[in-house]
Amino acid sequence: MTSAIDQNSLLEAEAWELLEESIIYYQGKPIGTVAARDAEADALNYDQCFLRDFVPSALVFLMHGKAEIVRNFLVETLKLQSHEKQIDCFEPGAGLMPASFKVHSNGNEEFLVADFGELAIARVPPIDSCMWWILLLRAYEKTTGDLTLARQPDFQAGIKLILDLCLVHRFSMYPTMLVPDGAFMIDRRMGVYEHPLEIQVLFYASLRAATELLLPDGDGDSYIGKVNRRLGSLKYHIRNYYWLDLKRLGEIYRYKDNEFGKEIVNKFNINSESIPSWLTEWLPETGGYLAGNLGPGRIDFRFFTLGNLMAILTSLASEKESQSIMNLFAQRWQDLIGYMPVKICFPAMDGLEWRIVTGCDSKNRAWSYHNGGNWPVLLWLFTAAALKAGRTELAQAAVAIAERRLFKDKFPEYYDGNNGRLIGKEARIYQTWSIAGLLAAKKFVENPEYLELISFAEGLEVPGCSL
């Protein structure tokens, strides 16, 4: 009789084999992984390597001592980085990294073709690709101890181009980054335009990574100074204005609107009637989270998972806030974890709200895809954040749930339903980042020391500023 340990080893070996089969080769070298290998569906762009999708795969390769593919990926994607001065006539702005790339052949010659969003649904350029690229460069350096790659002149220039793109002067009074709908993992219209949490946390993380990777020589010291100034303001802004718990909710409920002047309480002119009815009962006594978005006259009260988990990993959330976020998961487990970790956002939009906000997007129907679907790829982030917060039992429970279903269901892209019971209506199977998400999560549980690849210690003491 095969023991449970032997069975787990066999299943893990099967997942690893699937991951290796997804590898893309360029000029004889491994360079990335395809998005999915679903033989029953049209390839579309799922046969390409997406920068954000490759991150969990890259972490798995790094944790298994296979750093070559990650190095090749970093080198070749840097060559694809845009060097145009600005977005003009559908050309990507300087510093932008592509959403994805594909290997093309012309006789014996191979070359890479990048998509910066010009082929994407709604033609939205990816804002998060360049941020994930910096974080992956840092993870590569921490794993291998190779300090030479990031210090090469072309890599230093690439990092500075990204910072120029992200730190550009803009029409804004806030330290956060203004982005359109569909510019990151939620790449379809979902009302996440303006200052979405996920981008602000990735922005914060990439700035912190840049301070570790940039050399202080030449104009590097000037860049580090700019980064540190923005970090302090950004950290203060997110912690003070995005945080939601019952105490904060009570304050918002009693807000006066249309206040004028500097020393006011309701700085964003939030109307208390915008608090959704579901929230006051759903928010636990000891739970809290960072709101999905914040701007003039607007708080998006939805819970967005990736931003909150990354806030824990990057120490953008304080220790107390990190515990409150994990308390929310523990006490609303069926809503946020359910039958397949982890729900991308909660709650889903339905009815007239869905029609207006999504533009009647049939793929984003209620409790499906980005509108409240459950995404296995988020398992690695949940596991890492839970371990960093010292909530090992939550990490283990989530991995156990995922293992029971993913192999049987052939690693779908996402799951549907209030609790993630159904395989997504249009989900691809053998989705690479679903496979890598499980493998990375298991590796983090086995060896929590790997958390340093993607996490940051608190230790950032830079003065903040208020509006």
TrEMBL record:
Q: What class of enzyme is it?
A: hydrolase
* Cited Gene3D superfamilies: 1.50.10.10
**SUPFAM superfamilies annotated for this entry?**
Six-hairpin glycosidases (SSF48208)
Q: What Pfam families has UniProt attached to this entry?
A: Glyco_hydro_100 (PF12899)
Question: Could you name the domain of life of the organism this protein comes from?
Answer: Bacteria
Listed under catalytic activity are: Hydrolysis of terminal non-reducing beta-D-fructofuranoside residues in beta-D-fructofuranosides
Could you state a single Gene Ontology molecular function term?
endo-alpha-N-acetylgalactosaminidase activity
Q: Which InterPro entries match?
A: 6-hairpin_glycosidase_sf (IPR008928), 6hp_glycosidase-like_sf (IPR012341), Glyco_hydro_100 (IPR024746)
**E.C. number(s) listed in UniProt:** 3.2.1.26
Could you tell me the Gene Ontology terms of the biological process aspect for this record? sucrose catabolic process
Which keywords belong to this entry?
Carbohydrate metabolism, Glycosidase, Hydrolase
For this chain, the family text in UniProt reads:
Belongs to the glycosyl hydrolase 100 family.
The name this protein carries in UniProt is beta-fructofuranosidase
The protein's organism comes out as Nostoc sphaeroides CCNUC1
